[in-house]
Amino acid sequence: MRHFQILGCLAILIVIVFARSTRGDGEPEPQPPAIDETTEPITGDPVMPNPGSEQPMRDPFTPYEIGAGGGWGLDDLTPDEQDVVLRGVTANPQAVQDAYAGAARDLADRARAEHPAAALGISKLGELGVVP
User: Using an 8 Å Cβ cutoff, are 77 and 92 in contact?
Assistant: First the structure.
């Protein structure tokens, strides 16, 4: 068994030596053409087709302006379109906020009740016969 290991190492060594000796053989790599380093002189003024048309860079985080009279008002819409726009707008927004607050309280109570089981890594306590 040990002879096979020695022969395997010897075979790998022969392959490495052969690969190193043949790596430099072959055609030389083509060289890129020489670049002329002389610069062309500028003999006149730079070209500016529309002088004064340059604009500074716009801040990418500011919204675009729609211009004067570019937006639509609610009075410009038909009654059907106004119904779509006003859908979900209630006369009593406090009732909506109270409903969200009640739902958040209920969800917090449920999370508080399920926390011990999650902390212990036990899931589905109802199937085990334990009431949370």
Answer: no
Q: Is the pTM of this model over 0.85?
A: no
- Is residue 70 very low, low, confident or very high in pLDDT (cuts 50, 70, 90)? confident
Contact in structure between 99 and 88 (CB atoms under 8 Å): no
DSSP string of 78-95, one letter each residue: -HHHHHHHTTT--S-HHH
Is-contact 132 117, C-beta < 8 A? Answer: yes
Residue 77: both structure tokens together: 């819409």
Contact predicate 114/132, CB 8 Å: yes
The Cα–Cα gap between 61 and 16 comes to 60
Environment class of 117 (CB within 10 Å of its CB; exposed 0-12, middle 13-18, buried 19+): middle
